[in-house]
Amino acid sequence: MFGYDWPRFHAAVNDLPAALLLVTVLFDVAAWLTKRDSLKAAALWTLWAGVIGGWVAVLAGLQAEDAIEHGEAIHELMETHETLALTTMGIFTVVLVWKLFRRARLGGAEETALRLLSLAGLVGIVWTGAVGGQMVFEHAAGIPAAKMRAEMENREAGHHHDPGEAGEEHDEHADSLADSTHRHAPGTAPHKH
Fold it and tell me: 6-146 is classed in which CATH architecture?
């Protein structure tokens, strides 16, 4: 799969559909406020692309679920993430199907209901992303245990900056790690440890 495994493929394809569905809602609200048909058309096209891409991301996520090492905490988050993703994509799929079924004959109440449903879907996107981020950034989902152990050892070893490195400020922590072999490449932005 182009050098990707399922978890990496899921990570590669999940951002664009979320952005497209966000823009769909923004175009839809702007079309409602300005009464511009061009914005209404843009909302429909981005909805199409967002729904198709969103289902690709969901299917990749379902495959990734069985491909990563995980314990109970990640498993519970994965279940929540999956439920939120399926619900969110269900909402946007209903909005798309309803708009295609009714074409341009949507009444005011229907448009309002679909707009509110899209806003609920937008909340779902944010919530789904927050849970996905929690899995990755707080629980290291997708990182094999052996790589995580090696990274933990690397971090425990620490590193230091050589005196006189361009723009580097030294603190007690950096000086205490003077025996470390870690070096930054030329041009690395100044930072503290």
Answer: Up-down Bundle (1.20)
